[in-house]
C-alpha cells in the first residue's frame, strides 16, 4: 500500500508544477482536481463502491475498464496508406463498463465528434477531425503513434478515434469536463483520453504475449481457445475476452478487463477475468496471417 501511495503522490506533484502552461510534448497536461484525489481511499474500482465518492478521481460508474484490441488482416484503406503494424495487434479502445458488465454510451452530446454514430438517436458530426485537435495541442508524437497502432478497418482511422471518444470517453467520469476546473482548454479531454488509451494498450502487448507461448499467426494451423486463454492469463494475470467471427472460427478481437485504482488516466490497472463468454469455438480457431500488402514495419519511440 505504501508503494502505491507514493506513485500517486509523484504523479500528482508533476501535474501541480505543470500548471496551465502550454502543453509540453510528451508530458501529460493534466488532471486538475488534485487535492480532492489525494484524499480519496486507495481502493480499486468495482471492489468497494461504498468508499469511492469522487467521480473525478476514479471511474464511477464504469469501473470495469476494458482495453480492447483487434486482430484485422486488412484495412480496406491500403491505397490511402492505412496499413497494419507488423507484429502487433491494433487498438480498439478503452471502455468504461459498469461493474455488472452493462454500459452507457454517448453520454455527452456536447462532445459528439463521431461522424458515424452507431446509435440512431445521436446526430452525426461534420466538423474538423479529432486529429486536428491533437495537432492543436502540439502532440505530433501521439498522432504518429495512433496512426501506427490505432488503425481502423473500413473507415479512416481518425473517424474511428472520434467514435471511440464520443461513444465511450464521454461516459468515463474521470474525463468529465467539470473535473478540469476553470483551466479547461477545449478538447484537452480528447487528447488526454487518447494518451490514456495508448498507455493502457502498452500494458497488453497481445502479439508478443501470444508469441512468447509459441502462438503466432498461421494460415496452416489452428489453435484452441484454451491455448489463447492460457498464454494471455500467464502473462497478463487474468483471462481476457476473445472474440471470433465466421461462426467462432476466426480470431478477431481481445478485451482485457481491469479494475482501476485512481483515475483512468494515471491510475493502477488490475487485470480481472472477463465477465463475457468468448464467442470463439473451443477448437479449430484460425489466427490468420496478414496479407503482406496490408502491413508495414513500425517502430515506436518508447
Ligand atoms: C470499504 O472501505 C471502507 C472505508 O475505507 C472500509 O471500512 C470497509 O471495510 C471496506 N470494505 C471492504 C469490503 O473492503
Ligand atoms: C455461419 O454458419 C451458418 C450456418 O451454418 C452459415 O449460413 C453462415 O454463412 C456462416 N457464417 C459465416 C460468416 O461463416
Ligand atoms: C464452431 O461453432 C459453431 C457454432 O457455435 C459450429 O456451427 C461450428 O461447426 C463450429 N466449428 C468448429 C470447427 O468446431
Ligand atoms: C492468410 O489468410 C488470410 C485469410 O484468408 C488472408 O487474408 C491472408 O492474405 C493470408 N496471408 C498470407 C500471408 O497468405
UniProtKB/TrEMBL annotation:
Assigned protein family: Belongs to the RNase T2 family.
SUPFAM superfamilies: Ribonuclease Rh-like
Source species, domain of life: Eukaryota
Coiled-coil region list: none
UniProt-recorded name of the protein: ribonuclease T2
GO cellular component: extracellular region
Organism lineage string: Eukaryota, Fungi, Dikarya, Basidiomycota, Agaricomycotina
Catalytic site positions: 92, 164, 168
Gene3D superfamilies found in the cross-reference section: Ribonuclease T2-like
Any one biological process term the GO annotation gives: RNA catabolic process
Enzyme class, UniProt record, top EC level: lyase
GO molecular function annotations of the record: ribonuclease T2 activity; RNA binding
Pfam families: Ribonuclease_T2 (PF00445)
Enzyme nomenclature, EC number: 4.6.1.19
Keyword Disulfide bond: yes
Signal sequence interval, chain numbering: 1-18
Record keywords, A-Z: Disulfide bond, Signal
Amino acid at each position: 500500500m505504501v508503494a502505491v501511495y507514493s506513485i500517486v503522490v509523484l504523479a500528482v506533484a508533476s501535474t501541480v508544477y505543470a500548471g496551465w502552461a502550454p502543453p509540453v510534448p510528451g508530458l501529460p497536461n493534466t488532471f486538475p482536481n488534485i487535492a480532492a484525489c489525494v484524499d480519496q481511499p486507495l481502493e480499486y474500482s468495482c471492489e468497494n463502491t461504498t468508499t469511492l465518492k469522487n467521480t473525478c478521481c476514479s471511474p464511477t460508474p464504469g469501473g470495469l475498464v476494458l482495453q480492447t484490441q483487434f486482430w484485422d488482416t486488412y484495412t480496406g484503406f491500403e491505397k490511402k496508406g492505412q496499413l497494419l503494424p507488423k507484429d502487433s495487434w491494433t487498438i480498439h479502445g478503452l471502455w468504461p463498463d459498469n461493474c455488472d458488465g452493462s454500459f452507457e454510451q454517448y453520454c455527452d452530446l456536447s462532445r459528439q465528434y463521431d461522424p458515424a454514430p452507431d446509435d440512431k438517436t445521436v446526430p452525426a458530426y461534420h466538423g474538423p477531425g479529432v486529429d486536428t485537435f491533437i495537432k492543436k495541442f502540439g502532440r505530433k508524437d501521439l498522432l504518429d503513434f495512433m496512426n501506427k497502432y490505432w488503425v481502423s478497418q473500413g473507415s479512416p482511422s481518425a473517424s474511428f478515434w472520434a467514435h471511440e471518444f464520443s461513444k465511450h470517453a464521454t461516459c468515463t467520469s474521470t474525463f468529465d469536463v467539470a473535473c478540469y476546473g476553470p483551466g479547461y482548454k477545449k478538447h484537452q479531454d480528447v487528447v488526454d483520453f487518447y494518451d490514456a488509451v495508448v498507455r493502457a494498450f502498452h500494458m497488453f502487448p497481445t502479439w508478443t504475449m501470444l508469441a512468447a507461448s509459441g502462438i503466432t499467426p498461421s494460415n496452416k494451423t489452428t489453435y484452441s481457445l484454451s491455448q489463447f486463454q492460457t498464454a494471455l492469463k500467464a502473462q497478463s494475470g487474468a483471462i481476457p475476452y476473445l472474440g471470433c467471427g465466421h461462426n467462432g472460427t476466426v480470431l478477431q478481437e481481445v478485451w482485457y478487463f481491469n479494475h482501476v485504482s485512481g483515475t483512468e488516466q494515471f491510475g493502477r490497472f488490475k487485470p480481472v477475468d472477463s465477465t463475457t463468454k468468448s464467442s470463439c469455438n473451443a477448437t479449430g480457431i484460425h489466427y490468420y496471417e496478414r496479407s503482406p500488402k496490408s502491413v508495414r514495419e513500425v517502430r515506436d519511440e518508447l
